[in-house]
Design goal:
about 290 residues; about 35% strand; single chain; 4-stranded mixed sheet; 5-stranded mixed sheet
Amino acid sequence: IMDNANLCELSISSGKLLPKFSPAQLDYTCVLDSKASELTIDALTDDGGASLYVREGGGSRTVPLKDGENQIHLEVTSEDGSNIKVYTIKATRLSRSNALLQALDMPGCRLIPTFAPQTTGYIGLAAALAPAAEIHCRVADSDMKVQRCDTGDVGLRFPVPLNYGQATVQLQVTAADGTTTTVYSICVMRRDLALRPCPSNSNSSSSSHGGGKGAGAPLLFPPTLTCSLCLGPLRRPTTVGHANCPHIYCRPCFDQLTRKNKSCPLDRCPVAAPASEGVGAAAASTATAAATA
């Protein structure tokens, strides 16, 4: 077929071509390091008789680059000259004064808002019982520096221990030429434990709340083998230690809960003196036996 003006291969000497090459895809982009002074195009026509001309190369397949956006056009002419197809590469060479992150992520956490290089303030929500989180950064230039302001640590990954309250981490990004800096601020905090209310159960309201004295409070199911907070299987079961409270909790959920409130979140019974795990397990077993009797 003499009117074939397709490429069958296309690659570049540095950077990554996006999207992945396909003969039918005509437009591509790539981001290049500030050190890149030129870009070499490696391309092959689908038809051996077709010709390829790189306009910006002046007959050469090596194109000089300037800071910012560079448009590179690859003109493919079919063997019979009846068909011309132009592939375009938009190559962006980063300035050495660029001080913006290319990516910011916190694995296992939710970053609010979604990352954008020009946005410098974020909230990172970690799991309710997570002991720590980690901030991952990516820069476009290997000569750029990312430094944690409070510790002076330099790198692309920064661990954040989570104890009480919230932790604010500030990261200073310095451009490759050292002339520009940008500070990103991430407020890292745990999510609150999810408290799922039980559906209404009129048969259990009087027994659960002492003959109606707890009117208006959430109605409860009898104790089961699941945690009343996370609704998952019990891990090291314990209770608030109050005679009128039938709820059983995982020990980690209970410890997290009682840091803020000294009462059961479902019926507001006060927490008694701290119970040992053995006492909590015994109470859980007794409550479960009563429920299944």
